[in-house]
C-alpha cells in the first residue's frame, strides 16, 4: 500500500468552502488503476489546515495516475478557481509506503 498526504493552509473562514469543494469532487481518481481510498482531513486545532489523503495499492499505480491526463486536467481546473487566494495555494506533499496495518 502507498499513501500520499497533500496538506495546505487556507484562511479559517474559507475552510468550509474548501471542504465543500472536495465533498463535491469529480471522483475521477476513484477510477484510477490501484486506487483504494480518499480521505479529506481537517485539523481539529487549526481548522484552516486541510489534508487530502490518497491511498493506492502501489507506488507505481499512484505515479501512473499523477503522470496521467486526468490528474493534469483536474489540477489545471484548480488553477482557474475564481477565488485566487485558494487557487494560489501550494500544498505540502508527503508520500509514504504503508509498512504495517
Characterize the structure shown:
The protein has 101 residues and is of the alpha+beta class. It has one domain (2-97): Alpha-Beta Plaits (2-Layer Sandwich), CATH 3.30.70. 32% of the residues lie in helices and 30% in strands. The chain has a 4-stranded antiparallel sheet. Strand 2 (35-42) and strand 3 (49-56) form a beta hairpin. The radius of gyration is 14 Å and the shape is globular. The protein starts with a strand and ends with a strand. 5% of the residues are buried. The mean pLDDT is 90. Pfam families: ABM. This is Heme-degrading monooxygenase HmoA. InterPro entries: ABM_dom, Dimeric_a/b-barrel, Heme-degrading_MO.
* Number of helical elements: 4
H and E order: EHEEHHHE
CATH class label: Alpha Beta
Structural shape: globular
Strand order, sheet with most strands? 2-3-1-4
Oligomer: single chain
Assign a percent range to the helix content: 25-40%
CATH architecture field: 2-Layer Sandwich
Q: Mean pLDDT, as a whole number?
A: 90
Distance between the termini: 10 Å
Number of strands: 4
Rg for CA atoms: 14 Å
The major pleated sheet works out as:
4 strands, antiparallel
CATH fold naming? Alpha-Beta Plaits
The stretches of 5 or more residues where confidence is low (pLDDT under 50) are none
